[in-house]
Amino acid sequence: MHGLANRAVERFTRDTYGRETWHGIMHRLDLGFVEFEPMLTYDDAITLEVLGELALTLKKPLGEVLEDIGTYLVSHPNLEALRRLLRFGGLDFVEFLHSLDDLPGRARLAVPDLVLPPLELEEHARGHYSLTVGPMPEGRIAFGRVMMGLLRAMADDYGALVFLEHKGTRADREIIEVRVVEAAFASGRAFDLGAQLR
Strand 128-133 and strand 173-182: pairing? Predict the structure, then answer.
C-alpha cells in the first residue's frame, strides 16, 4: 500500500484521537517504526494490521472506521488541498459525481505510483445513481467504505441532501447507492475556483 494511504490513516488517528492513541497502536503492533513515510510503499498486510488494531482500539467496526477516514480526508482543515482538488470536479454535487470516473487517473497525475480502484458511476433515474468501486487487488482494504465517508463529506461541502447506502460486494466490486434528494439543500462551504491574490 502506498505510504500516502498509510499516512492518511496515521493522520486521521492522531488528529481525531490523539498522538497517544496512535503511538499505542504502533507499540502494540511492534512493526519497528511509529510513523509512515509518505513516498514509500508498504506491504498491504501492514496496512490491514494497523486498521484492524485501530478498529479494536476504537471499539468500532472496521467499515465504520474506514468511513470516518473518508470523511476526515475531506473535512479536516489539515487536508484543505485535497478538498480543493475534489471540488474542481464540479460546480455542484451531481457534477462532482459524474467526475468520479476520472479520479483514479487524476490521482496518478499527482502521484504516479498511487493506485486507486476504478470508479464507475451509473445513473438509474434522475437523482438515483450507483457507484461501482473496484475491483481492488486481493487483500486490499474495502475502499468503497472510504468512498462512503468521502461522498458524505462532499455532499455536506456542496450543501446537498444525499442518502448513501453500501450495497455490498459483487464480483470483487463494491456498490454504493447514491440518492440525491436535493442538490442545493443548504449553502455548503465556501469555495472559490481562483486563488486569492494579496
Answer: antiparallel
Q: How confident is the model at residue 103 (pLDDT cuts 50, 70, 90)?
A: confident
Cα 112 from Cα 20, distance rounded (Å)? 33
pTM recorded for the entire structure? 0.87
Contact 9, 47 (CB under 8 A): yes
Residue 158 cell numbers, joined:
456542496
Indicate whether 111 pLDDT > 80: no
In this model, does residue 130 exceed pLDDT 70? yes
Residue 176, exposed/middle/buried by CB under 10 A (0-12, 13-18, 19+)? Answer: buried
Compute the distance between CA of residue 63 and CA of residue 143 in angstroms, rounded to an integer. Answer: 10
List CB contacts of 98: < 8 A, sequence separation 6 or more.
Answer: 90, 121
Instruction: Decide yes or no: CATH 3.90.180.10 for domain 91-182.
Output: no
